[in-house]
Amino acid sequence: MVDAIVTNRLTKFFGSQCAVNNLDLRVPVGSVYGFLGRNGAGKSTTIRMLLGMTRPNYGHAELLGHDIGELPPEVRGRIAFLAEGHPLVTWMTVAEAIAFHKAFHPAHWNQNLLDRILEHFELPSGKKIRRLSFGQRAQMALALAVAPDPDLVILDDPTAGLDTVARREFLLSLIQLIQRNGRTIFFSSHIMSDVQRVADRVGILVDGVLRVDCPTADFMDSVRKVVLDFSGQPPPFPGCEGLVSAREVGRRMELVIVNFGDLQREVIESLAPVAWNVLAMNLEDACIEYTRGPKGLFPVGGDELSHAGRAAHD
Amino acid sequence: MEFRIDATGREPIFRQIVQQVREGVARGLLVPHEQLPSSRELARTLVINPNTVVHAYSELERHGILYSRAGLGVFVAEPKAELTKSARRRRVLEILDRFLTEAVHQGFSEEEVLRLVSERSGHFQWSSASPGA
């Protein structure tokens, strides 16, 4: 399997602050990859490095098999980028903006696809872009980005600021119109239900470090909340492999554990709780617990998991 | 049959689809050789990634619940038992015990539970075989 995006120990400092730390990212061709993390985790910096807008201090990256430092123009033309907030030239009409963008892509311009998207969104061609709603601007930006028929689409928080209906529409077009065989979609987001819907893989950045990189379902399956009930004050938790967090709520102890198994079961039973339960978590809760847990522990994914996941999707 | 997914649910979406197909078959809402929506179609209806539907369908195929015919689509398979009699019995008992535990904790009486079970079982399609009886 070829990867559309590969980074190798990609690192960026701002002064003494490490924004992205030794990032090893692999985004397989054809996947829809959700890139997650809190504000300031390093998502946008990573995207800016990939697109050559800021230089890494260390490490390197490849897009579609080419080093980002020396992307040939024809490869650059196969990569589309949607910036956060969907900046567009606002004094142009929809039709003028299309003609303007088309001039940059003489060789590849899929008018058919563009027409389908414009029709789908019912974007009026004579209307000035500044008169479009924010949701329509997002749709317009998406339409312009994919018209050159790119093999890789990188989107920085594309649904931020959109209302529920516009978001649903945007996602639908992303997977119905934009996704095709061999086209890779890489998007950063804060909206977990969006990611759970459309991403087949997730990467989670915590303080510039990639903590999770695996199929979405594998991540959800690997994080569990374990609730222990005691008749009195819970005993101190001795710790176990994969422990992300431990909390006491009255007579109850709540643990978040990665890769729960026999080992952890033994530790829990040794505390002799009155009752205990293992619960699955949705992507949002799993992600929240995971990103605020102790740093530097228990990466999910890595080689073993990602290979298993890829085999399952092949 | 109408599919529904919960994008904030605890189960990965592919497993929600697997579960709904299994339940649809068990309730007789999906009958053998009935065609399922294509992965693109279902992905559009549910606003999810088509790969996820493909993943769910292939899982169901692996378990003999669906079969696919090249170029035609995905269909519901004839029911067949995947496990040995004793394994099937063990599996059902395991789930039954979990269910009864919950019912006891929720304060149901034995009569109430038995009545509920016979009421609900009317909604399902039963085969005449009696595994592990």
Which keywords apply here?
heterodimer; A: 314 residues; alpha/beta; 6-stranded mixed β-sheet; 5-stranded antiparallel β-sheet; elongated; B: 133 residues; mainly alpha; 51% helix; 6% strand
Please explain how this structure is put together.
The complex is a heterodimer of chains A (314) and B (133). Chain A has 314 residues and is of the alpha/beta class. Helices cover 33% and strands 29% of the residues of chain A. Chain A is built from eleven helices and 15 strands. In chain A, the strands form three sheets. A six-stranded mixed β-sheet of chain A has the order 7-8-9-4-10-11, sandwiched between helices. In chain A, strands 1, 2, 3, 5 and 6 form a five-stranded antiparallel β-sheet that branches. In chain A, strands 13-14-12-15 form a four-stranded antiparallel β-sheet. Residues 302-314 of chain A have low confidence and may be disordered. With 133 residues, chain B is mostly helical. In chain B, 51% of the residues lie in helices and 6% in strands. Chain B contains five helices and two strands, in the order αααββαα. Chain B has helices at 13-26, 39-46, 50-62, 85-105, 110-121, and strands spanning 66-69, 73-76. Chain B has a two-stranded antiparallel ribbon with strand order 1-2. Chain B is globular and about 50 Å long. Chain B starts with 12 loop residues before the first helix and ends in a 12-residue tail after the last helix. The model of chain B has no long low-confidence stretch (mean pLDDT 87). Chains A and B meet through helix 6, helix 7 and helix 8 of A and helix 1, helix 2 and helix 3 of B.
